[in-house]
Amino acid sequence: MNLSTKPQHAREAAAEPVIEVQHLWKKYRRPHIKITSLKEAFVAFIRGQTGYTEFWALEDVSFAVQPGEAVGVVGPNGSGKSTLFAVIARVLRPTRGTVSVRGKVCPLLELGTGFHPELSGRDNVYLNASLLGLSHEETRQRYRDIVAFAELEDVMEAPVKTYSTGMLVRLGFSVAVHMDPEVLLIDEVLSVGDEHFQHKSFDRLKQFKDEGKTVFVVSHDLFAVRQLCERCLWVQHGKLLMDGPAVEVIKAYREAVAQQDQAVEG
Amino acid sequence: MKELLEIWRFREVLFNLVRRNLKVRYKNSVLGFLWSLLNPLMQIGVWWLVFKVIMGMPQKDYTAQLITGFLPWLFFSQCVLDSTACVTQEMALVKKAYFPRAILPLSSLLSNLVHLALAFVVAVVLFVIWRVNVNIHYWLVIPSTLLVATFAYGLSAMLAAWSVLYADVKFIVNNLLGLWFFLTPVIYPIQLVLGKQAMASDGWLKRLINILLPYIKTIYLLDPVTISILGYRSGLLKGGENPITVSPEIVPGMTPQQVAAAHAQAAARQELLRAQYPIGHYIIGAVIITLVTAVVGHLVFRRLSWTFAEKG
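YS: structure for the whole thing
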């Protein structure tokens, strides 16, 4: 099985890339035993346990995303997709290599991240928007649109602990897409809400793309990735296996998964 | 410098978190925000009952002294306590969103500062009603607050980072704060410590204490929390006077001569203590300790803050 191709650097040249990842390595320490207290640390020290093994979550990953591109990342669980996402979103720091992101970046937070259950929907919108880099005034201007898009006009003054999961998800998504970012980072949040809202959110993402904005998606939803993205990265065991047109990469990825399944069954 | 700019850029997050902390703290309680006044009042009430009523502290303005000492102490201890949870509670944010992590300890500091300010407004109203020696040296409250807040930030940042690594930090801090409370002149006048004489030296322990006594006193007076409390007292109660005071011990039934003698004795001891402990030097010392703590605490926090998102 020889699917690995060199990351494509051919396409750059035109404009400066929006996201540029160069030789990115990320090391994690996985503790043998979970040490969360001084006593455990002491016991582990006495027994001569080093406490953790190191492993590379990402190994020498390089790619560049041009303005207006929509790029999807696919791969099995534990492949390093989310680590890659977190490094680009500046939550994690690379162990080696560089990651540079230009322009206003908006990570679409995992749904309802930063929502406080006791606060009202309104307060949570302001809090969440400020986390995504919006000022109070800017949020105030967009507030009505955000609420209207989420279709939650009636409940904004109630604490969000009274919301259903679907309502939370809609509100979180709505805040993120009203940020007016130049780069939108999406981690596993393509299928939000009911059928109706899914269509709506998907249309919104497409609209983003049409406006020439950059979209970077990490997802298991291959169908959605293929619809939204023209380019795809396949990450497995921390390595970038393939980088190319979405249709081809997804096809190759599917075949690999199918082969593996057969091997298991056989 | 770059970091300060970054925090400024994310100031909306800071304000929103502070607003949230204030809103959430007394959610679902009937009296709501009033608790931030009732809580300290009740605790002060307990100490007042024990020391003024039961043990009969002789000082005239003991209650006012208690309030001016307890409020800054409560601010400091609450900041330090909150700090041990301020990162772990916000793990969901830390793992998903980028923002300068220093915003977390800062937000719990600012929320506690709001509580402190509210409580002091009430305290000053009380002082006016009681006709405690109110004066124009209120400005001393500002440097005192800055001192204790900066010191609290340094400790909070350090403890916040460590408590992500080890849950023990919270418990250790809890116990140490219990001790620290008695190492600040909140419930007793400062001359009790500064004027302490060497004990009759029988037994090695007492001898050891006698040897250490001058050093203990020096460290005691260098504590930024103590200096800050003295600043509040000096600003609100004593008209900007040197906060090291000795009040005369007057027992009912003394003859006028005895009262005069007690006053003279107290004045002499006060003179002696003030000469022995030049307050200006100690203030400079406390400021230096505060700045060092703030810088070291912040650096420790910054060094560790990149690992927060990797913790389980």
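YS: worth flagging: Chain B is about 70% helix and 0% strand.
IM: good catch. Also Chain B has a mean pLDDT of 86.
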